[in-house]
Specification:
Rossmann fold; Arc Repressor Mutant, subunit A; 8 helices; seven-stranded mixed beta sheet; alpha/beta; 215 residues
């Protein structure tokens, strides 16, 4: 990967990187070898100049008169996103949402490896979701240490989420993917990515009503 400048990359650029990675992955699967910024623009609904500006933050990757090599660019963006390294995950909450995430991600996301799931429901202990075993909470700290877990996925009720997040932070978890309907308070060295499904639905509702009002 080309060396990037030391300047801070804007959150908007970082938010677009997974989209670039996803679209390039589809192009790669379809056998497309090269693509111009203009062609990528028409697929992604992002201006060609924005694409060039975004990628120039990390070295550019394109050749004038040729465009971008799809496979190479896909791999390089994967490296920027940290997908050339393995991240070990656990799921806190082995209910329907937790099971759905495990089953979805096990076969679709390279670089992320589920190691185990935890739940307070004793009837789930010892069962497997895909190939992932469900454990009782008292084994949590030992499991995190022995399996080098760095990411925890929270699919718990909001009443349990904060205390669980504090416990995870104390056990050495580096990041939390939070699906609980609560904003977590954790130490500054623990990264949190919130996925509030209801917020997304409410934004969609707003857009529907705005469109109806303006048309």
């Amino acid at each position: 990967m080309r060396a990037m400048d030391e300047r801070e990359i804007s959150p908007a650029v970082i938010d677009r990187l997974p989209r670039y990675f996803r679209y390039l992955g589809v192009l790669k699967e379809d056998g497309v070898e090269k693509i111009s910024s203009q062609e990528l623009s028409s697929l992604m609904n992002v201006t060609a100049s924005q694409i060039r500006q975004d990628l120039n933050n990390f070295g550019g990757f394109g050749q004038q008169g040729y465009g971008y090599n799809v496979e190479y660019l896909h791999e390089e963006i994967g490296k920027i996103l940290g997908l050339d390294k393995q991240h070990n995950l656990i799921v806190m909450g082995a209910g329907k949402l937790g099971q759905a995430l495990i089953n979805y991600m096990m076969y679709r996301n390279r670089g992320f490896l589920f190691k185990g799931a935890f739940d307070t429901d004793a009837s789930l202990w010892g069962r497997t979701v895909g190939d992932i075993r469900v454990f009782p909470p008292e084994k949590l700290e030992e499991f995190i240490r022995d399996n080098h877990i760095d990411i925890a996925v929270l699919t718990l009720p909001k009443t349990e989420a904060q205390a669980t997040a504090e416990r995870l932070a104390a056990a050495g978890i580096r990041a939390i993917w939070n699906f609980a309907h609560v904003d977590l308070k954790v130490p500054g060295n623990v990264l949190v990515e919130n996925v509030h499904l209801q917020d997304s639905l409410l934004k969609l509702s707003y857009k529907i009503h705005s469109y109806e009002r303006d048309n």
